[in-house]
């Protein structure tokens, strides 16, 4: 029962957050909703028992959105106070959506559980955690791919440093000329 309720909660809140991020006129509200949506998406990974992927989802995607948030605060004028003027139609829409979401929650709690004994579609190794299993796979079966990815990231980092350094050198030569 808990998994079903948690699934519907994460689904509804992530859809709501992504809807807010699409339809919001304020950039900062949109990015805050996007970060919230990514956090709720990570809840699905925790429900499935993939704690490592859930934490990576939070760190990588939500961290990237927060960097985007910081850049947008620098580029957009956020010093203005936001004044929300809602019409009666907007208030009715908000009340209607609130009532519908409450009814959906009641239906979720009242609905019978289809099956509480679902079998896993993947083998579960006893006494080995999710993160430990990923580490074992990365350093045994996928060792060459893992090392190639590390070398590619190193090449990309060195290339970015070289390109940035060339731009800095060109900027200095323009000032002297």
Task: Break the fold down into its secondary structure elements and pairings.
Layout: H1 2-23, H2 27-47, H3 51-75, H4 88-110, H5 130-138, H6 143-176
Helix pairs in contact: 1-2, 2-3
What's the N-to-C terminus distance? Answer: 73 Å
The string of secondary-structure elements, in order, is: HHHHHH
What number is the mean pLDDT? 76
Number of domains: 2
Low-confidence stretches: 112-118
User: Which structural class do the helices and strands define?
Assistant: mainly alpha
CATH class of the largest domain: Mainly Alpha
Q: Per DSSP, what share of the residues sits in E-state strands of 2 or more residues?
A: under 5%
Shape: flat
CA-atom Rg in angstroms:
24 Å
Q: Explain this structure to me?
A:
The protein is built from 6 helices and no strands. Helix 1 packs antiparallel against helix 2 and helix 2 runs antiparallel to helix 3. The chain is flat. The protein is 76% helix and 0% strand. It has 2 domains: 106 residues, Up-down Bundle (Four Helix Bundle (Hemerythrin (Met), subunit A)); 50 residues. It is an all-alpha fold.
Summed up:
The chain is an all-alpha fold and 177 residues long. It folds into 2 domains: 106 residues, Four Helix Bundle (Hemerythrin (Met), subunit A); 50 residues.
State the main characteristics.
177 residues, mainly alpha, 2 domains, 6 helices, 76% helix
């Amino acid at each position: 029962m808990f998994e079903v309720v948690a699934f519907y909660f994460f689904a509804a809140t992530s859809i709501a957050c992504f809807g807010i991020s699409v339809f919001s006129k304020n950039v900062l509200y949109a990015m805050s909703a996007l970060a919230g949506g990514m956090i709720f998406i990570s809840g699905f990974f925790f429900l499935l028992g993939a704690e490592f992927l859930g934490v990576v989802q939070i760190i990588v995607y939500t961290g990237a959105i927060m960097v985007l948030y910081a850049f947008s605060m620098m580029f957009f004028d956020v010093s203005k106070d936001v004044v929300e003027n809602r019409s009666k139609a907007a208030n009715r829409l908000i009340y209607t959506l609130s009532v519908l979401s409450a009814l959906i929650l009641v239906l979720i709690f009242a609905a019978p559980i289809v099956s509480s004994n679902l079998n896993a579609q993947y083998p579960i190794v006893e006494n080995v955690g999710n993160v430990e299993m990923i580490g074992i796979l990365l350093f045994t079966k996928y060792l060459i791919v893992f090392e190639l990815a590390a070398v590619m990231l190193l090449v990309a980092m060195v290339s970015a440093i070289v390109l940035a350094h060339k731009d800095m050198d060109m900027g200095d030569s323009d000032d002297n000329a």
